[in-house]
Sequence to fold (495 residues):
Amino acid sequence: MYYVSTRNKLLNFTPAGAISQGLSREGGLFLPASLPKLPASALETLKEMNYQQRAVYVMSQYLTGFTTAELANFAAKAYGPEKFDTDEVVPVRKVDDNTYCLELWHGPTCAFKDLALQMLPYLLTASMGKNHDERTVCILVATSGDTGKAAMEGFRDVDQTRILVFYPKDGVSEVQALQMKTQEGKNVGVCSVVGNFDDAQTGVKTLFSDEKLREELAGRNTFLSSANSINWGRVLPQIVYYVSAYCDLLKSGEINMGDPINVCVPTGNFGNILAAYYAREMGVPIARLICASNSNNVLTDFLKTGTYDRNRPFYNTVSPSMDILISSNLERLLYALSGGNDKKVASYMAQLTQKGSYTIDEKMLRQLQQVFAAGCTDEAQTKATIGKMWQEHHYLIDTHSAVAFHVLEQYRAETGDNTPAVVASTASPFKFCDAVLEAIGVEEREQGAALLDQLSAVTGVPVPRPLAGLRDKEIRFDGWVEKEAMGGVVRGFNR
Ligand SMILES: *Cc1c(COP(=O)(O)O)cnc(C)c1O
Fold:
């Protein structure tokens, strides 16, 4: 198995090469030259395995050059009981007769990003080892809240790595800010930036292309890398849980072997739903992939019309981790839909940079629409869905998951397609206490860590352990900078 770039398929990389480099030099994303297919009996075999074993099985299809023992060691550490609060790792909960919720937030930071970011440090450092790279990698992250915390938990105290996170000063929830300010570990740093997420993100991108900084760091035997979802090492671990969800439904007798399911995913950067697409391509009987967006509905329009147009207002919503207008991972899907036409992908991406939009051809659009459906919600619908889920099912969900549940309901009403559906639930409701409390009708709300206890008291649902600990943790990082000063923070951090 070798990897190519979406913008140049003549570039061939080993899995270790693709993971340690992260992004291809000409700006393309790495992906397997051809996708592995599961053997006919694989789902029967996988059904009997636990999550760690399933992870090893699925990831080994993509990672030639890694031994099974190596991957088993990574999976045991990344998904073990010290990290996840349930042995199932990603439990599937039945909501009603044909709706299931894949709870992806039982990890150390209570968001689905843990599934990838607990694994990435092992994949990255092992890849560097295989390439005989002895430098220190400094991971720079711009985060709208969940990625930064999950990346720090994954990389804390990992040898040969350091991690520095920038988040928008007034753009994350109170619980998210507390999670980052209290981060432990010898190799971590956190700083907030005056401005919004785009300011932090642009600042980080500028640092990546800063030649002078690169040279200075090289003098200290250090190079910069990224932990965001353009790295193949983040997409791959996410494929596992879609395979796993199908196996769990088989095992509990909810479906029979071969029965189709639909999957509905709340989407921002298109990473999570792309992983579901790869699971489908591998042979998991997924019929439709339903892409759910909030008011930043650039993907809904794209999937309906074939035109991607980022020239539109940006909204700050109660589902901030999906407030995004450039969905980087869509590039990987375009590569697949175009039949591996790297020139075409490069041209669409150039148009996106130059004028902020592109339109795919008819044939690609038809293929896209055979697999994907899409919908979006406004703020009122998101909150109403949380309230309804709580009243009807006594099930507490977060704002991102609510977007997906609502879009699934819309989809079913519009199409009459009642195939059993799995909704990806991407965060614990306790990460977004204020919005969740409001949605279930609590008008007088506390502030800071007290919100956690309030949500727990009102609902009787216990606060997840990693968040309950926040109350007593010491604030380690309280600094903020103007975005022009971010380079100075990186230099200071690597001194
Ligand atoms: C990151 C995130 C998303 C969006 O995931 P993508 O892979 O960017 O589509 C959705 N929900 C939550 C809670 C997240 O943290």
